[in-house]
């Protein structure tokens, strides 16, 4: 893996309502097995509105949404203006290629919190309601026909802690064979 082993938390966001964008806040509290305190996606079972309709008992693999801040500059080059929290992420990072991490990677955030990576976010139609045409930019196809998703990664909280901008982000890769991220 070519990604650096440490990065930084740029911003943190949460919302107690199911809205697309989340307001930036000074800090967030992560609760093991639950997610982000006060966030609409927190809970041991899925809180995503689409997934609740298909299986309300499904384990919540999308407790925490992370997006790399470097994406915002890429989107600006494509004519979009996006900042922290606007893609619905809880944690905006810098210095780590989140999409290159394998399933099971543990992200140590701040002094105590640990999030285990479960997969990629699949951009949905809500993205185009936020900014028309953005979904097509965040979900593209390469020359070989492979779908590329850039809308961040998802994870579950495995260790409680508080996370704030400026906190260090440390990557702990899983033991054994590394499994590429799929959609959760």
TrEMBL record:
GO MF, one example: pyridoxal phosphate binding
Matches recorded under InterPro entries: MoCF_Sase_C, MOSC_domain, Pyrv_Knase-like_insert_dom_sf
One Pfam entry name: MOSC
MOSC domain sequence ranges: 23-172
Species, as recorded: Cryobacterium arcticum
Record's protein name: Molybdenum cofactor biosysynthesis protein
């Amino acid at each position: 893996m070519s990604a650096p082993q440490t990065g930084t938390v740029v911003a943190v966001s949460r919302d107690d309502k199911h809205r697309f964008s989340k307001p930036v806040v000074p800090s967030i509290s992560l609760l093991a097995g639950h997610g982000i305190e006060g966030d609409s996606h927190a809970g041991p079972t899925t809180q995503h509105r689409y997934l609740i309709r298909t299986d309300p008992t499904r384990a919540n693999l999308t407790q925490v949404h992370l997006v790399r801040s470097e994406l915002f500059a890429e989107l600006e080059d494509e004519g979009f203006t996006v900042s922290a929290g606007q893609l619905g992420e809880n944690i905006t990072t810098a210095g780590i290629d989140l999409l290159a991490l394998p399933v099971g990677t543990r992200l140590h955030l701040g002094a105590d919190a640990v999030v285990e990576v479960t997969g990629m976010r699949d951009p949905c139609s809500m993205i185009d309601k936020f900014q028309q045409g953005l979904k097509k930019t965040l979900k593209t196809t390469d020359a070989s026909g492979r779908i590329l998703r850039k809308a961040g990664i998802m994870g579950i909280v495995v260790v409680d802690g508080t996370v704030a901008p400026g906190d260090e982000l440390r990557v702990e890769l899983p033991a054994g064979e590394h499994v590429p991220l799929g959609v959760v």
